[in-house]
Amino acid sequence: MEERYNSFAGWCRRTYGRHLYRIALDAGMTCPNRDGTLDSRGCAFCAGGSGDFAVSYTGAKLSHEDLKVSGAKGKEGDYIAYFQSYSNTYAEPERLRALYTAALCDPLFAGLSIATRPDCFSEEIYDLLAELKNTYKEKFIWIELGLQSANEESAVRMRRGYPLSVYENCMSRLHALQIPVITHMIIGLPQEDISDYLNTIHYLNETGISGIKIHLLHFLRGTDFGREYEEGHIRELSMEEYVQAVALCLAHLDPDTVIHRLTGDGSGEILLGPRWSRNKKQVLNAIRHEMKMKGYVQGCLYEQK
Ligand code: SF4
Questions:
Q1: CATH number of the domain encompassing residue 45
Q2: pTM of the full predicted structure?
Q3: Which secondary-structure segment (H or E) carries 75?
Q4: Ligand 1 in reach of 84 Cβ (< 6 A)
Q5: CA distance readout (Å), 280 to 159, 210, 223, 275
Q6: Residues above pLDDT 90, as percent of the chain
Q7: Which among 29, 80, 179, 240 is placed 20 to 30 Å from 55, CA to CA?
Q8: CA 146/CA 171 separation, integer angstroms
Q9: Is any ligand 1 atom within 6 A of the Cβ of residue 46?
Q10: 187: closest CA among 170, 199, 175, 178?
């Protein structure tokens, strides 16, 4: 480990001999928390599920302009088709087949990373993933699941819309297919503290993940949490609190888990707070410094059950 944690950059170099860059794709999806199936208001923290730099994707080759917008820095084969916006298994299997196949056949991409919810899978979709994994053996398929917290009360508070049992079922199906899962968690949710964050980390260790994205809770304009924040009902974390929480979470995390992200994106104009989160470099440096000061490396407090 060249860093104090198992960074995505280091893991890519060891595994593929080069860095891989995500190109965030918006394939025109929606999600059950937005289309009225479960709710129409979305999760309480979500401003729309679309990344700032996601490029529209229909399965056609991306243009030079698209690559520029995505901030792409690599060459052909250095990219991950990151199906980012909304829930990217929430569509008819034939539509998904066309999108995934187009990306898998494109020499631009080394593989796919599909962001979705664990309640957006069907037998046909598991079968499709198994078939594509088998057909395109030289490419990879990863799934990203937005669990956010292992606390069931927090799930209700954030209006996530599914219980842990759904996540666990999905995980066991994806494990059976040997599809790596990257799970997202949020630090700073209302009514959560360090014991909740560590509880989520222990839960993720037990359910088995390949990678993790740790996000700071951003308060965004147009969201329920953003409104509660503006009304003074929820407070933001200080940078110091966030940094200490992340460092301790990493100390308890399985050392084999790959760290794909340790901060959230600032979300541009709609970010109400915390303003300090705009300086990602400063946050990352502070996390590394905190780990060094405490003598932490990833997994140093991990206890295998
Ligand atoms: S976070 Fe995901 S599941 Fe929740 S409303 Fe946004 S897009 Fe939908």
A1: 3.20.20.70
A2: 0.97
A3: none
A4: no
A5: 27, 24, 22, 11
A6: 89
A7: 179
A8: 12
A9: yes
A10: 199
